[in-house]
Design brief:
heterodimer, A: alpha/beta, 7 strands, globular, B: 328 residues, mainly alpha, 0% strand, transferase (chain A), Plipid/glycerol_acylTrfase (chain A), acyltransferase (chain A)
């Protein structure tokens, strides 16, 4: 058994002890079908939290997307994203104009893996989530049969705000919504806005409290 | 009864747990039989929810009794770790529902990872002189200092008050439970479990009797906006029932019957008042039970169960130490 095989469950345990990491499957049951989870992104803790909220048997096939420049900066970060979480790396900047940044994601989907994407592209700490990046639209276009699951992570910005390294114990939930797909003749803008709205609708207590 | 006095403490404690678990088994068996006789399908909504409440309470009692037993058999270190975890989960629940802000982050880290463990380490080492002042004196000052260093003056007093209150109730209050296990009375060595048992029993009796009294008396609620069931007469009935049961239990404690009555009254009365205070805080946070926002926070309602104990334990502990001039 490798150290990485222990690290995953250990991180999951820590996430549960600190946040409760409760998964609420509101729109669909947990299943091993191929899916793309799209979630709001507020902190580095998000990935671990979703990881802990997923049933253990789903975890190996759900691969998160990590920015190559940030997550391969140090040996530890590389080990964490490669060996423990088996993430898919994407480049935020193109090395040459012909390179398709989505290529690694397409490859992972072809292999039958599920993906976990934070379509805002970066962590947003304040208020509403940022507009979605276009990548998710291109993936949905190329793989129309893969379910897209809107996912809302609640309260985590209080656990570990941007810039902090030690998490504070506060109860968090992960809500999984109803699977969606690209509609016929839906253009890029409409699709991105609709999925973003579906994701935001999952926030417990709604937006006007 | 007099024969029991000559048993060794270990045997007496074994008897206590035997009786406790025996009673729970009887109640559970009775519940199972009753359920078999009256299937749930034939019930209207009201007894159905009463039954669900009964099952929840019974489950909580089982968990409580098991934890109590675990705390006892695992000794000083084990019981402090156990109650330390309890404190941790209670404080987590408390902080989740209070709207702390981003600039409270460092303060919360100090509360969870410095103050809480320190308090329990002090308890485990029986340093009762430091234990009583660590949070009211040192932490009380440290918390606003850390908050001030965050550089955010917005709602400063309110933010500090929330965290100080959380620490006071969930850490300081609850840490008196293992302290009771470790308190040494002359000629009463090794029987700390009885003191904790005494405390938990009188506090629960008071809560149950107050609830029963307020239902049967149907008095006008004294503080309608906070609690619909609290009235002064119901409180007196609750506290006096607790005191009465305490006096009946005097033989498990180092107290005489009269002393047991007064101490039980203090514990029972402060426990039910503490529960009222926590209810006021819940109202402010906009919830009815700490647990009922489970869809939002995943909270499990632990604080609902321990609120009364958090208030009763320090009052009981310090009255006992003061009255019997225990120097440890």
């Amino acid at each position: 058994m490798r150290l990485a095989d222990l690290m995953g469950p250990l991180l999951g345990f820590i996430a549960r002890a600190i946040t409760g990491a409760q998964g609420h499957w509101l729109g669909c049951p947990p299943s091993n079908e191929q899916r793309i989870y799209i979630a709001n992104h507020q902190s580095h803790f998000d990935l671990v939290l979703i990881w802990a909220a997923l049933p253990a048997e789903l975890r190996p096939r759900v691969r998160a997307i990590a920015a190559r420049d940030y997550w391969t900066k140090s040996k530890f970060k590389t080990w964490l994203t490669t060996d423990v979480f088996n993430t898919v790396y994407v480049s935020r900047t193109r090395a040459n104009p012909d390179e398709d940044p989505l290529e690694p994601l397409v490859e992972a989907l072809r292999q039958g893996d599920s993906l976990l994407i934070f379509p805002e592209g970066t962590r947003s700490a304040k208020g509403e989530p940022l507009p979605f990046k276009a990548g998710i639209y291109h993936l949905a276009e190329q793989f129309p049969n893969v379910q897209i699951i809107p996912t809302w992570i609640d309260n985590v910005q209080r656990v570990m705000p941007k810039g902090e390294v030690v998490p504070v114990p506060i109860l968090c939930t992960v809500t999984f919504g109803t699977p969606t797909q690209i509609q016929p003749e839906e253009d890029k803008k409409a699709f991105l806005e609709r999925t973003r709205a579906e994701m935001m609708a999952l926030k417990p207590g709604g937006w006007r409290q | 009864m007099s024969e029991l006095k000559h048993w060794s403490p270990a045997d007496q404690i074994a008897l206590l747990f035997g009786l406790l678990f025996g009673l729970l088994l009887l109640i559970t068996a009775g519940g199972v039989l009753y359920r078999a006789k009256n299937p749930v399908e034939e019930l209207t909504i009201e007894p159905r929810s009463a039954r669900a409440q009964f099952r929840r309470d019974l489950n909580a009692s089982w968990i409580g009794a098991l934890l109590f037993w675990l705390a006892w058999i695992s000794g000083a270190v084990g019981s402090t770790i156990l109650f330390g975890l309890f404190s941790f989960f209670c404080l987590r629940e408390f902080i989740t529902l209070q709207h702390t802000t981003r600039s409270d982050h460092r303060t919360l880290i100090a509360a969870f990872f410095v103050i809480l463990p320190l308090q329990y380490i002090v308890v485990a080492n029986r340093r009762f002189d430091l234990f009583t002042v660590l949070i009211p004196v040192y932490a009380f000052l440290a918390i606003p200092v850390i908050s001030a260093l965050s550089g955010d003056p917005k709602r400063f007093l309110e933010r500090n008050a929330k965290i100080q209150w959380g620490v006071m109730v969930c850490v300081y209050g609850l840490s008196h439970a293992p302290a009771l296990l470790l308190l040494e009375f002359p000629r009463y060595q090794g029987r700390g479990a009885f003191l904790l048992f005494f405390l938990v029993t009188v506090v629960s009796i008071a809560q149950i009797m107050q609830e029963v009294a307020s239902r049967s008396l149907r008095r006008r609620p004294a503080v309608r906006a906070i609690s619909r069931s609290f009235s002064k007469r119901a409180w007196w009935i609750g506290a006096l029932s607790g005191a009465f049961v305490g006096a009946l239990l005097y033989w498990v404690t180092p107290f005489k019957a009269g002393q047991a009555f007064v101490l039980a009254f203090l514990a029972a009365g402060s426990g039910t008042l503490g529960a009222l205070v926590m209810k006021a805080m819940k109202r402010e946070a906009g919830v009815h039970y700490w647990g009922n926002r489970s869809s939002i926070t995943g909270a499990i309602g632990l604080l609902d169960r321990t609120a009364a104990l958090c208030f009763a334990a320090p009052i009981f502990f310090h009255s006992v130490r003061w009255y019997f001039k225990l120097s440890v």
